[in-house]
Amino acid sequence: MATATTLEVLDAKGTKAGSVDLPEAIFAAEANVPLIHQVVTAQLAAARQGTHKTKGRGERSGSGAKPFKQKGTGRARQGSVRMPQHRGGGIVHGPVPRDYSQRTPKKMIAAALSGLLSDRTRANRLHVVESFGLGDQPSTKTAREFLASVAPGRRVLVVVDRADETTVLSVRNLQHVHVLFQDQLNAYDVVVSDDVVFTKAAFDAFVAGRSAGEESK
């Protein structure tokens, strides 16, 4: 299926207000599923704190002496009340603090994101809007109604530029809507979203940033 080289820009009323060019390197890439899986898995692993900890036998409080003599009681021999089979004893092979992060090259991260954005583009699930028509005052109701007309999917990712505080305040409390700045866009948030909605300013900044990164390589 051919990918369009341009995409319509919608205004606050949902009508065409212009168009933007879609660089092939970002929006016409092949979606490499194993690569996307690896990058998303690494991202989720890096989000884990890794602070889990249980106490072993040597870390539990309690006497180290034998609770009763070795023979003659008819009971199983025991060496300490801190042994795992006793209440309050140590945990066998319990979790210890560790770092779950995985090394993921920047080129792999960029390729996974491009593949996902290209997939959304081919499915007509990528949208660019001039603005949400909010003016100077945040309005969750206005943002909800606008998104319902623009993005038909249940889960929507809204991408804005860092100066657009009004849009952030308007959409951040909407159910099934996640908002990011354009320099925070990542594979996980795209893969769990049905539709991706860019503001025009965020789209231009994202493309410019990716193009600058490609030139610096």
Automatic annotation (TrEMBL):
Residues 47-101 are annotated as: Disordered. It holds the Pfam family Ribosomal_L4. Transmembrane segments: none annotated. GO terms for cellular component: ribonucleoprotein complex; ribosome. Signal peptide: none annotated. The keyword Ribosomal protein applies. Keywords: Ribonucleoprotein, Ribosomal protein, RNA-binding, rRNA-binding. PANTHER family: 50S RIBOSOMAL PROTEIN L4, LARGE RIBOSOMAL SUBUNIT PROTEIN UL4M. Part of the 50S ribosomal subunit. This is Large ribosomal subunit protein uL4. It comes from Leucobacter tardus. The gene is rplD.
